C-alpha cells in the first residue's frame, strides 16, 4: 500500500501554515496615531509545501484508515477461525482474490459478493470503527514516533562517525 | 512506500491482547477459604493477530517516521529554494537518484554523498524531529481518522442500498 505518493518537490504551491497570525504594531490605537511599521506575520509552524488543500494530518489519517481496515480483517479472521470455519473460508478466499490496499474498495467489493459476504463486510466495518475509536493507542503512537525520531538520529550519526573517524590504533 | 506488508491471515501466531488481566474470584482470601471458581481472563481489547512481538502502534509509528522524513525533505527543499539555490539543486538531484521510501536509508546515503550533502542531511534530521514533536497535530490525526471511519461506513452502506434497492418509480 502506498503510504504517500512522492510528489515532485518543485511543486511548491501549498497551503499557508495553519497558525499564521497577523500581528500589527499597535492593535488598539486608531490609525492616525499608528506609526508606519508594516503588518507582519508570526508563523509558529514550519511551512509544508505540496499538500494542496489537504494537510499532512489528512494524508496520514487516510493511511491510518486503510491500516485499520487491514487490522479489522485480521481481527474478524481470527475470531471466525475458531467457531465459524465456513465464514472464515469465505473471507480467506475473498482475500486471495482482492487486494486490501484500499480498505473501502475492499469492503465495497465484499458487500457485493454475496449475502453471506455482506454480513462479513458489515462486521469488518463495525470492528474497524470500534478499533479506531477504542482500542488503538493514539498516545502510544505519538510516543513511539517521537522516540523513533530520537533513536534514528542517534543511530545515523553514530554510524556515520564510526565509519568516517580515524582509528588511532591503526597507526 | 509500503504502508504495511499484508501478511497472510492464516498466520495467527500473534501476541496476547495488551490489557488482559487475570481476575481471581477472591483475590484477598487465603487459598483454603477460596471456593473452586477457576481464574479467568478479562480482556478489554480485541485480539489482533499476526504482529508477532511488535504491535499495531509500533507498525504505524514506523510508517509515520518515514512520512516525517518525507515532510522534512519537503520543508527543507522549500526553505532552500528561495535563498540557497545551489543547495536546493543538490537536494533535488539527490532526490532524483534516491528513493525516499525508507527515510533513514535516504538520510544515511545523503550524509555520505559529500560534506555539503551531509549538512543537508543534518538539517533534514533536525526538521524531522522538530516536526514530529512540535508541529504535527496528533489530536487532529485522531479526530480525522475517527471521522473518516464514520463517513466511510455511511458512504459504503448508502451506496450499497442505493445500488440494490428497488426503485418504485420504475414500476
TrEMBL record, chains A, B:
Gene3D superfamilies from the entry?
Chaperonin-like RbcX (1.10.1200.210)
* SUPFAM superfamilies registered for this protein in UniProt: RbcX-like
Chaperone found in the keyword field: yes
Checking InterPro entries in the record gives: Chaperonin_RbcX_sf (IPR038052), Chaperonin_RcbX (IPR003435)
Origin: domain of life: Eukaryota
Q: Name one Pfam family in it.
A: RbcX
Q: Name one GO biological process term.
A: photosynthesis
Q: Which UniProt keywords apply?
A: Carbon dioxide fixation, Chaperone, Photosynthesis
A GO molecular function assigned to this protein is: protein folding chaperone
Q: What is the protein name given in its UniProt record? A: Chaperonin-like RBCX protein 1, chloroplastic
Q: What is the scientific name of the source organism?
A: Daucus carota subsp. sativus
Amino acid at each position: 500500500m502506498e503510504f504517500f505518493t512522492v510528489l515532485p518537490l518543485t511543486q511548491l504551491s501549498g497551503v499557508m501554515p495553519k497558525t499564521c497570525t497577523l500581528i500589527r504594531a499597535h492593535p488598539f490605537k486608531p490609525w492616525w496615531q499608528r506609526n508606519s511599521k508594516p503588518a507582519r506575520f508570526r508563523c509558529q509552524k514550519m511551512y509544508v509545501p505540496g499538500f494542496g488543500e489537504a494537510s499532512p494530518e489528512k494524508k496520514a489519517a487516510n493511511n491510518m484508515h486503510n491500516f485499520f481496515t487491514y487490522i479489522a480483517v485480521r481481527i474478524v479472521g481470527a475470531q471466525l477461525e475458531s467457531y465459524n470455519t465456513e465464514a472464515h473460508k469465505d473471507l480467506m478466499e475473498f482475500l486471495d482474490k482482492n487486494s486490501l490496499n484500499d480498505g473501502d474498495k475492499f469492503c465495497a467489493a465484499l458487500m457485493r459478493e454475496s449475502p453471506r459476504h455482506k454480513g462479513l463486510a458489515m462486521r469488518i466495518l463495525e470492528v474497524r470503527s470500534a478499533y479506531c475509536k477504542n482500542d488503538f493507542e493514539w498516545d502510544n503512537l505519538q510516543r513511539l514516533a517521537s522516540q523513533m525520531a530520537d533513536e534514528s538520529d542517534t543511530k545515523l550519526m553514530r554510524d556515520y562517525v564510526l565509519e568516517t573517524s580515524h582509528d588511532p590504533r591503526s597507526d
